[in-house]
Structures are given as C-alpha cells and as structure tokens.
Design brief:
33 strands, 27% strand, 616 residues
C-alpha cells in the first residue's frame, strides 16, 4: 500500500494552487496504518533550497486501512517555495517526495507552492477574453497612408499573393524591407468581423516607427510607422475597438532598439544618437566593446543593439517621465502591452513598468512573452518573479501549445497533455490563469495549418514553394477538430448553428446554454469552474474546468452497473470563446480508489473519446 497525497486534489490540499500571504492552507496525507506512524512533518524550503519552516501534522482520522495526518499553516512572505514530507515510523524515518501524481520514498521531486501578491488584480475585461493577434503589415489595408517619412529603401507589393522577399541581397543581407501595406485603417475596417468572432482583446505586433516589416527594430518609440498611419489613426482604431468592447494591447519591444534609430544611429542618419559619442543622451543606453563598431546586440544581430534597461535615462524615457513611451501610447488609446522577450528584461524593470501603466490607466494589462512555465522560470541564472510580485498579469501559454501539438501529431497519447495543463493550472495564480494567452501559432512559430498539414523542414527556398494540397489541408483541419468542431464562427452551439440539447445539466441549466452565455455576455463570463449534477439514471456528478481552449471533464460517483456502458451527452465549448463542439462521453467502467470510491477524471477529444485518464 502506498502513501497517498496529490496536491491536485482538494481532499489533500486546500486551496488548490497558489497562496496569498497569511492565507490558510490545509494539507492532509493518508498513510497505511501498518506503517505505525509516529510523526509526520511538512518541510518547506525556499526556492534556493534554504529552510523556510516546518509544520508538525497530527493524526486526524482513521479510514479503513489508512490514517490521515494533516495540518494548517500560513506563509507570511512572498516567494516560490518547495516542500516534501518527513515521516517517522516505528521502524524508520524517511522523506516523501513527488513522483508524477504519486508519492515515493527518498526519490523524486518536491512539490511547488508559490505565495503571490494580490496587489494588482487582473483586469476584469481580460479574464476569459478571446485574444486575437495581428501582424499589422500582413492583415488588411484600407486607404493610402502618407509614406513621405517612411524609412527607405522599401518595396510595396503590388500583388498581395506574392511570396515575401526572404532571400539575401547582393551583399548577403536579408533586408526585410518589403511590405504588403496593412495599416491602422485596415484593422479598424475589420473590427466588426473580429467582434463577430468573439474577439475582445486585440494584440498588435510592433507599431513603432521602424525600418523593417516586422518592426522589432525600433527607430522612434513615440511615432507610429508611417506605413501604418498617424497617431490620430491609431487613436481612431482604439476608439472604434472600444465601442465594440475590444481592448488593444501593443508589443512592447524594450530590450533592444534598431541600429537605424534616433537612439543608436549607426550611420549618422539622424544626428545625436549613441554612435556620435559619450555626449549623446543615449550613449549610456548601450554597451560598446569597441566604439562605435562593436556592441552588445540581441542574439548577435547587429541591427538590434541591446539597451541597458536599468539605465536612469532609459528608465525615464520609457517608463518614468511625464510623457514616457508607455504613458504616451496608453493616452493615445492603448490598453496595455505584451512584453517582448520578458526573460531578457530585469524583474525591476518589469515591475516598474507595471506600476507606471497602472498609475496611468488603472486597468492596463501586461502580458509577457515566456516560452516555459513562468511560475518557476530561471532565465540567465536568475529565478524570475513574474507572478510572485504581480509584475505580469499573465503570459503567452507556449507550454499549452506544445502539449496540444504533441497530442495532435501523435507524439503523446494524451497523458502529457493532461499533465501539462494541470501543471500550469496549479502553478499559475487564478488571475494569471484566467487571461493566459493560449496560442496555437504566433509570428515566432510555423502556421498551425502548415505544421499539421505536413513537414515544415527544408531550406527557405523549399519552404517558400511549399503549398498545402487539398488533402493536407483537410488533414490539418481534422486535427484541429481536437479543439473545435467548427471553424465557421457562426455555428456557436453545434451543427448548423442550432443548439445541441443534451441531458447534462449544470445547476439545472443545459450545458450548451451555460457555455453560450460565456460568449453572449461579451466579457462578463460565467465562472471557469462549474459544478453540477447529471440528470440521468446513473446519478453521477459532473464538473468541468474550462481553460479557454481546452475542457477538463470530471465524472464522479458510483455507476449503478459497473462494467456496462454509460453515456452522458452534452455541449461544451471554449470559455469566453465562440467555437463550440459536441461531446459524447462513453465510459465502460469506474475504478475504485483506495477508499472504495468510484471516480474518473479525463479529457475528451472531439469524437468523445476519453484520453489521459486519472482515477482518484
């Protein structure tokens, strides 16, 4: 018999996930009575392994062959903590560690527990928001902007079906200076379309004046790129979006600028840049190894010189000044920022930026680009405190993307997908989880249809010539059905746009109606954790936790005829979203836990097939 503890279950740990300072946390574990336990101690360590505190557990209950030991404690200080149990029996003393969702003696990992601030609640509009990313140049053009001030040379594609220029020029340089003409007016023209999709938060890739089409090489932080339009055009876009209930966040590129910028000015084009010498107000922003031709740049790309984010002059310009960059764009209508390469920005810089944007606009949103689990990320040898100090409201959910794609491409049978989602759910504070940016593809990844429809390997020439065949496209779309039964956004409830009525009820309401309300309320979404009861012969309980693009289904209770097929039918969908898919659950058996309870917890795919099962 094993010692039982699972931090994912509230019978072992309450509350689920993270804690606030001075919040009660109750833990319990079940130890076989045959162990003759004498003492159980919870040992909590700081993130660096130094002792934090310990708690002696008491015997609370005897149940069958198990004895329950538990205790209640609080954490006073913000921080990332890890814990294990020390158990003394009649015959030995040993440590109990985590092994997957089980326990193990003297081998395994420690459980994670974060104590986070509640200083900056996540803005209500962002919780459950459907987010839509726009790469401005490639989205839509309306009207003709004034290109007088556009940095030259550049080429505007006359035919928007042309392949982008990706080959190096005669000097061996890929210039990235060909454009398709997408602009602010074009985005504004498409807002009704985006609203019809259920979008309530728009994320724009960089809009600052720049030389390249990707615009991560900022020339002037305070000016929009002329190809996109004017500051007035940007304000008009934001005002139109707000009238439709859509918020707008900008890509904050603050770890580097462009070499062709008013700040660095490598070629002396503007005058007064850092390359003019120590007399420049921007000189201290950069680190020169050999002035002016050798300097620290982003990943060695010399067109992207890195800045010293904590330089007083840079802090004043970007964050602190009366008309700082972040304040300037908020006043023009932006609602927040997505921080590019957040791992490369100091914690102090991010927190200072958060303080400033909330001062200017109390409900400003700050999301970070982090590719791993952001709750325990170590970047450049330093443990990050994104959530502990409330510096970021949320992050891009790349772990979720990887888990979904691994499952879709048969690299995972569903077990890792389930573990990945639950790990994020447990490690991220509830507010962070409520507005995590769930993504299948971004400007930094292959397009999802390309990835699912065939290989993305090969040379750039081979990739540029590759087109999905009808069969490959159908194959890619079929795999996407794991997430959504309909890509046609008019079909909100099921086939043909008509509600699919099943016999699964949540608090007396049809499942489809409950999830439909999440969309129709336009941001005033229902709770993400729903509990209810199935009105059927089996008398089993139902609960769902919705993670915006994935649905976890819990079925709990005892089926009357174990071993016989049991069906539950219903309609579920994406929290805060507009795409719904029918679910039909078929399970033939319940397994009993150590206490005789028959319970099951599983994911379902679009065919209703359970996978990644966990019985508890």
């Amino acid at each position: 018999m094993r010692i039982l503890y699972n931090s994912l279950e509230t019978r072992y740990k309450t509350p689920f996930g993270t804690l606030f300072p001075r919040q009660d946390c109750r833990m319990r574990l079940a130890i076989p009575a045959s162990c003759q336990t004498r003492q159980v101690t919870l040992v909590v360590e700081q993130e660096n392994g130094a002792p934090a505190f310990s708690v002696s557990f008491s015997l609370q209950q005897r149940e069958g062959p198990y004895e329950w030991y538990g205790g209640t404690f609080q954490i006073a200080n913000l921080g990332l903590y890890f814990y294990y149990f020390r158990i003394e029996t009649a015959n030995e003393t040993f440590r109990l560690f985590q092994q997957g969702e089980d326990t193990n003696m003297e081998a395994g990992g420690k459980w994670q527990l974060s104590c986070v601030t509640d200083r900056y609640p996540v803005p209500a509009y962002a919780q459950g928001a459907v987010m839509y990313q726009v790469f401005p140049d490639r989205f839509f053009q309306a009207g003709q902007p004034d290109l007088t001030e556009k940095l030259a040379p550049f080429r505007l594609h006359a035919d928007r079906t042309e392949t982008p220029d990706y080959r190096p020029d005669a000097d061996g340089i890929v210039r990235n200076c060909d454009f398709y003409g997408g602009n602010f007016a074009g985005i504004a023209a498409k807002l009704p379309y985006l609203r019809a999709l259920g979008v309530s938060l728009l994320y724009l890739n960089p809009i600052f004046k720049a030389y390249s089409n990707h615009r991560y090489d900022t020339c002037d932080y305070r000016q929009p790129d002329p190809m996109l339009g004017t500051a007035a055009d940007f304000t008009a876009l934001c005002e139109a979006a707000h009238r439709l209930g859509i918020r707008v966040i900008l890509d904050g590129v603050f770890s580097h600028t462009g070499s062709r910028s008013i700040y660095f000015d490598r070629s002396g084009e503007f005058g007064g840049g850092a390359c003019t010498g120590p007399g420049s107000p921007y000189y201290s922003w950069y680190t020169f190894q050999h002035f002016p031709d050798r300097y620290t740049s982003w990943w060695g790309i010399d067109t992207l010189p890195c800045v010293n984010e904590l330089d007083p002059g840079y802090l004043d310009y970007i964050i602190d000044g009366p008309n700082s960059v972040v304040a300037h764009w908020l006043r023009l209508g932006a609602d927040g920022y997505r921080l590019d390469v957040a791992d490369e920005l100091p914690d102090a810089f991010i927190l200072r930026l958060k303080d400033r944007i909330r001062q200017v606009k109390p409900d400003a949103l700050l999301i970070g680009e982090v590719w791993e689990d952001a709750s325990n990320k170590i970047a450049y040898g330093k443990r990050r405190r994104y959530f502990i100090d409330g510096a970021l409201d949320s992050v891009m959910n790349y772990p979720w993307r990887k888990a979904i794609l691994d499952y879709c491409q048969s690299r995972d049978d569903g077990t890792a997908l389930r573990q990945s989602v639950l790990r994020i759910a447990e490690n991220y504070p509830p507010g962070v989880l409520s507005c995590v940016m769930n993504i299948l593809g971004t400007h930094d990844t292959p397009r999802i249809l390309s990835l699912l429809g065939g290989s993305c390997d090969g040379t750039k020439d081979e990739q540029a010539q590759r087109q999905l065949s009808s069969r490959q496209r159908a194959q890619a779309l079929e795999q996407l059905l794991l997430l959504q039964r309909h890509i046609g956004h008019a079909d909100r409830y099921g086939d043909g746009g008509h509600p699919v009525r099943g016999d699964v009820l949540i608090d007396g309401q049809d499942v489809g109606a409950v999830f439909g309300q999440m969309v129709d309320d336009r941001g005033e979404h229902a709770r993400h954790v729903l509990h209810g009861h199935v009105e059927g012969d089996d008398g089993v309980g139902f609960a769902g936790i919705v993670f915006h693009h994935a649905v976890l289904i819990f079925i709990k209770g005892a089926a009357r005829d174990v071993g016989q097929p049991h069906r539950l039918r219903g309609v579920c969908g994406l929290a805060g979203g507009d795409i719904f898919f029918g679910l039909q659950y078929l399970f033939k058996d319940f397994r009993r836990d150590a206490f005789g309870n028959q319970q099951i917890f599983f994911f379902v795919d679009h065919r209703g097939t359970p996978f990644g099962e966990m019985y508890f």
